[in-house]
């Protein structure tokens, strides 16, 4: 749609908001590749891309962390493969189970994670093999490596995590909305009463928050875990 708008409105600048994790990055880059092929100088992308392994490592390296295991997101691993998680599981001695999103997938992922904990083992286990090959999607990874590079990223409730984001490489900077319009990111504003950071780091549960289900709910979220339908607070709220 953004490409069509750029073609139909050559007198206007069309900015596409490229947001997400490793899962969505290749799709954004395919759009940019097509804009370059069509010669659309009025098309640019504003990237807000995050990568999962650095966030997991930030949580695990926290001395106060109470996380016992991870269900790693199957849609991310379908792109990246599992290599980065093998290092994390071995270094921090914690089980990581690649898991899908259907109820049975989640139950099986939890079962495999608990089985590892009971056995005292810690490894990456692929419980979502129908969608996740060990090496991920080679074409998608090649596209990411070609067009993007790591950058520091600000995570709501956690803060800046070094090299946890992705931005366009220098040879593609002319298509960066941030560079084209000299945009300066504003500091994240988080409600002072929100304990989202503690929840995302595994130090608190949503039910520990005095505002959960009261001042904070899906139609009036105070923090990231309630904003997203995939967020833990939103899940607690929905399923009670």
Task: Describe the protein's architecture and organization.
With about 240 residues, the chain is of the alpha/beta class. It is built from 11 helices and 7 strands. The strands form 2 sheets. Strands 1-2-7-6 form a 4-stranded mixed beta sheet. Strands 3-4-5 form a 3-stranded parallel beta sheet. The model has no long low-confidence stretch (mean pLDDT about 95).
Short synopsis of the structure:
With 240 residues, the protein is of the alpha/beta class.
Tell me the series of helices and strands, N- to C-terminal.
Answer: HEHEHEHHEHEHEEHHHH
The main pleated sheet reads as: 4 strands, mixed
Structural category is alpha/beta
Number of helices: 11
Mean pLDDT comes to 94
Question: Which geometry do the CA atoms define?
Answer: globular
Query: For the CA atoms, what is the radius of gyration?
Result: 20 Å
List keywords for this structure.
240 residues; 4-stranded mixed β-sheet; 3-stranded parallel β-sheet; 7 strands; globular
Secondary structure layout:
Layout: H1 2-8, E1 14-20, H2 25-38, E2 43-50, H3 52-60, E3 70-73, H4 74-80, H5 83-92, E4 96-99, H6 103-119, E5 124-126, H7 138-147, E6 148-155, E7 159-168, H8 177-180, H9 196-200, H10 224-227, H11 232-239
Parallel strand pairs: 1-2, 3-4, 4-5
Antiparallel strand pairs: 2-7, 6-7
């Amino acid at each position: 749609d953004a490409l069509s708008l750029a073609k139909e409105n050559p007198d206007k600048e069309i900015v596409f908001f490229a947001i997400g994790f490793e899962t969505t990055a290749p799709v954004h880059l395919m759009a940019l590749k097509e804009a370059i092929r069509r010669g659309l100088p009025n098309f640019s992308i504003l990237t807000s891309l995050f990568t999962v392994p650095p966030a997991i490592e930030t949580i695990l390296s926290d001395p106060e962390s109470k996380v016992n295991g991870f269900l790693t997101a199957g849609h991310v691993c379908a792109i990246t493969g599992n290599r980065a998680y093998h290092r994390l599981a071995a270094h921090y001695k914690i089980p990581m189970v690649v898991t899908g999103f259907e109820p049975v997938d989640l139950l099986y992922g939890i079962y495999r994670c608990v089985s590892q904990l009971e056995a005292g083992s810690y490894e990456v286990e692929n419980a979502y093999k129908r969608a996740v090959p060990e090496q991920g999607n080679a074409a998608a990874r090649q596209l990411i490596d070609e067009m993007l590079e790591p950058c520091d990223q600000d995570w709501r409730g956690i803060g800046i995590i070094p090299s946890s984001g992705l931005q366009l490489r220098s040879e593609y900077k002319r298509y960066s909305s941030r560079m084209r319009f000299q945009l300066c990111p504003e500091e994240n504003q988080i409600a002072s009463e929100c304990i989202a950071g503690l929840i995302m780091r595994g130090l608190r549960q949503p039910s520990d928050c005095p505002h959960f289900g009261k001042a904070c709910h899906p139609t009036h979220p105070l923090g990231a875990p309630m904003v997203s339908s995939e967020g833990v607070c939103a899940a607690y709220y929905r399923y009670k």
